[in-house]
Amino acid sequence: MRPFKSTLRDVALQIYTSLSTAIILVGGGVKLTALETQMSATSTTPGYTKGHRVLEVLAIVTLFSLVAAGCWRALSAAGPNDGWWLAAGIFFGYVLADFTSGLVHWMGDRLGGYETPILGAAFIRPFREHHVDPKAMTTHDFIETNGNNSIVTVPLMAAAWLIPTTSSLGLFCFSVALSLAFWIFATNQFHKWSHQSEVPAIVAWAQRTGLILEPNHHQVHHTSPYETYYCITNGWLNAPLHKIQFWRLAERFVERWTHMNVYRDDVDTESSSVEASIDELDKPIDSQGPTEHATA
Ligand SMILES: [Zn+2]
Ligand SMILES: [Zn+2]
What we know:
mainly alpha
């Protein structure tokens, strides 16, 4: 039988999780109406409203506290032999976050448009404008950089509480969800750093070692015809997904089964420049070109 204290703790966490998720969802509804009214926020980004910024702040605070509570839940439930399960879950969550970043990025670049209901202004627009001016995101503050990812991650983190942590497998699944949520949150920060001319020394080290998205690696995505290397957390899955033509197959699948039009940049479709960029990645870092190139 479970100790009364730990049952009480779980109930308190459940209530907190449900309440914070409800706040985010209700906030989402309020935001949609507020979206009609353009209000000045700290950013000059078109479509970035004060209502959306408030939602972003709420989401970031909620996500941080949920992740902290999740770490506590996982550590207090772990037995002496569960360390490897937790470590494996964190690693798998990091890989899964990279895939998720690619999938969401691909959808933002290729599906729908500015006029798409609900998602157009707040979620699709930043992806499209990033290709017009890749450096613009480097002027965004912490909230604008990480807010959108936090909004989509809070419900995921809330759902993760349904995973029981009474077995090693449950603990593994919960740590995957926890890790996934955290790295999805961090993804746009990694993306922003990959476009910055200067980053803190520790960030540059993490980029060089491939622990997070490396600038020259990401530059392949910003090379004509802009249709590969969508993963932007650490980029580990970019090469294998490019090799099996995953994104091209996904586009064919969408066009065939949903009859949606896939958006393509108005550029030449010669892919030789992308292959040349990928070949460049195999050369030593010192012999590679400048980190930032002019992009369309
Ligand atoms: Zn893109
Ligand atoms: Zn980029």
